[in-house]
Batch of 4 targets.
Target 1
Amino acid sequence: NAGVTQTPKFRVLKTGQSMTLLCAQDMNHEYMYWYRQDPGMGLRLIHYSVGEGTTAKGEVPDGYNVSRLKKQNFLLGLESAAPSQTSVYFCASASSTPSDTQYFGPGTRLTVL
Amino acid sequence: QKEVEQDPGPLSVPEGAIVSLNCTYSNSAFQYFMWYRQYSRKGPELLMYTYSSGNKEDGRFTAQVDKSSKYISLFIRDSQPSDSATYLCATFNFGNEKLTFGTGTRLTIIP
């Protein structure tokens, strides 16, 4: 099992550009999450999904959109990137309840110039 | 005020020392407490979790929770260079089903 994978690993964008980050998990998990990690701020929840076809806002959702068309994939979109979105983005998944262990991907390092 | 406060360090200790990592939290609704370990340029991985006040031991690691003072600790005995990582505490609120992380403490074990 690959666990949780994220694509791409690194990306540099110019202000105003758009991009999509892909998260895939092969553990048949119901719950999936997108976090951003910034120095001094810790991990902050952007959006999450409690199952295929569902999404919900987390702590810092502005400027991001998500989709969960397939159970194994959770996409994070930036429609018009801003320098404030420079961060490391982590995807995570959990089995059947939100208190289950969250398994994290390796992260995507995004720089917006 | 953040719901979970954690000293960011960095913390450097010699190999073999006992390490103490701590967090405080403000919300009494937090019921489930975890420690994640994050190696450089990797995703966090769950190290330990506990539901209740008291101690939970797993090998060289002990997690301690004091709900009366809203204090969470992780102790590492006989620390090894491979323990060098960032340690994040986290709390779970069953009411809103949210996991809240501390900012993490960067730990270096010096050989």
Note: Chain A is about 0% helix and 50% strand.
Target 2
Amino acid sequence: QEHLVESGGGVVQPGSSLRLSCVASGFTFSNFGMHWVRQAPGKGLDWVSLIWHDGSNRYYAASAKGRFTISRDNSENTVYLQMNSLRAEDTAIYFCVSDYDILSGRYMRFAFWGQGTLVTVSS
Amino acid sequence: QSVLTQPPSASGTPGQRVTISCSGSNSNIGSNALSWHQQVPGTAPKLLIYSNNQRPSGVPDRFSGSKSGTSASLAIGGLQSEDEADYYCASWDDSLNGWVFGAGTKLTVL
């Protein structure tokens, strides 16, 4: 059974930094790209970042570029999101989500979702 | 303001067929695959449709997806009370070089 568990959320002041982690189990993590998707309170889904299965490529939403860094450690089945210069508008639940399995031949993206970790940026 | 446009709400009665639309442009839906996601409030989203019209295992065949040009739609047949949720479309956008989600459609089962 595929499982993603996020951690690292909390309440921080504007301008602070936070590092989110997501540990995967139940599937071959190194075969999957990984996304971070966030959801502000009462709002819709907002894609943040994607890292390829081997870490060779990374993509960011305009809102995250220059402030957030996605990385992964395939030996630990973990993906990270380093968030710097946090703003009030970054307040959201942050979900870790799978991209597709590069060996499957099927582009079944966003199949596995974690339960999310809440980040609150407030003074 | 999302680059993928969805109606904010939809409704139907049990047993009815409902469709939810998602409209984009040549840089997203027009040239890339679309997925649909269901989110019951307070829970994580769930993948319903990928690659425009493919269902993951475990998703009932009451759910179907289609795409034409720069628009797509999700159809839900034989509406059930447990289908009451928010539905989101998503696609890669070549101009933004990133993924985009629609703003979501809240489905109410009357």
Note: Residues 30 and 74 of chain A are 6 Å apart (CA to CA).
Target 3
Amino acid sequence: AQSVTQLGSHVSVSEGALVLLRCNYSSSVPPYLFWYVQYPNQGLQLLLKYTSAATLVKGINDFEAEFKKSETSFHLTKPSAHMSDAAEYFCAVSEGDTGTASKLTFGTGTRLQVTL
Amino acid sequence: DAGVTQSPTHLIKTRGQQVTLRCSPKSGHDTVSWYQQALGQGPQFIFQYYEEEERQRGNFPDRFSGHQFPNYSSELNVNALWLGDSALYLCASSFFGGEETQYFGPGTRLLVL
């Protein structure tokens, strides 16, 4: 079974400050890991993914995440927050190396607030 | 290149009724997955369809059923609706045997009264 824990349901940062959203996973098989963003009343947009290649993954809008197997973590960071980054962020895990996209198990989400 | 589309965008039903939600996958994709997202929660996997058959299923009762058509589009059916079925229903598509990413549609928001 797989699971995802997102520490902090709400995170508030000032515009221009570092963004750090935490994600820890549990998986009995080598995982694939994803970060999705959800703006109000919209679906999910993929930010970045880890699929057993480079452990430091770069995504859209200057977001990046580092896969740390020893810590079972996949934290999301962005050097400088922008007002447009305010949204809900979801970390998700799936079984890797199945040859296709298997079911995603999501965390409960972190709402990012960006203040002036 | 059209992305994943879903219809309708919003729906209101009463308890005990049945509902059908529809999804068209992203161009070139042949696999459709459905997720339920309750308010304030992360999405929960319902099931996945490939080659018109249910390939994987999450922990949802038999009241939730689906179908995939030869053109890869899909329907999600929910029978005997109850209040707890109120949620955003998300469809995601992918290419079987291809990259591991699922691309999501905008969702259908279902309210059960």
Note: The longest strand of chain A covers residues 87-95.
Target 4
Amino acid sequence: DADVTQTPRNRITKTGKRIMLECSQTKGHDRMYWYRQDPGLGLRLIYYSFDVKDINKGEISDGYSVSRQAQAKFSLSLESAIPNQTALYFCATSDFVAVSSTDTQYFGPGTRLTVL
Amino acid sequence: GENVEQHPSTLSVQEGDSAVIKCTYSDSASNYFPWYKQELGKRPQLIIDIRSNVGEKKDQRIAVTLNKTAKHFSLHITETQPEDSAVYFCAAANTGTASKLTFGTGTRLQVTL
């Protein structure tokens, strides 16, 4: 879905370096999410934001921070990267409207991060 | 918090056969259950979802069933085709509170000729 983009698509870095992954969307959704995907572990939620002023930790937020610069932009930072943060990272947006509605999530293409 | 378990982790079927993937959830307040398909090297995409006020939903060759009492839901794919080969993820959420999805660990489906 070209409406959700991530940069960079691939990144190799060294232990201790600061890394920022960026996500942009043109879908006009308020809700944005960062997930991490590891083989056999599925998609695990790192952080999520329901609007520009709202930031919430997910199940695996340690070692990560986020910034919601605008409705359309949500960045994930690794302050001091370590090898076990090597993974595929996905940004997603959601079209949630009301309690009675569905909550389809639209994923970006992913960023493959390798920490040496 | 919510915990979603998914089985099996891998599934191999012959083309034309049916495939069933099962998930259980722990939070009885969850009311929304989507299924995502992730093809190799691609992003996850929604293929079907169901809300807790519905027991079954069908879309062509795929269907999802929900048993609220037992807290489990299943994905059924009939007449499987090679293009069905992918990783499938179930998820659960309570849209009445902080609506965030908890995903299962995924099932790799291989459809052989």
Note: Chain B touches chain A at residues 1, 6, 9, 32, 34, 36, 42-46, 49, 51, 89, 93, 95-96, 98-106 (CB under 8 Å).
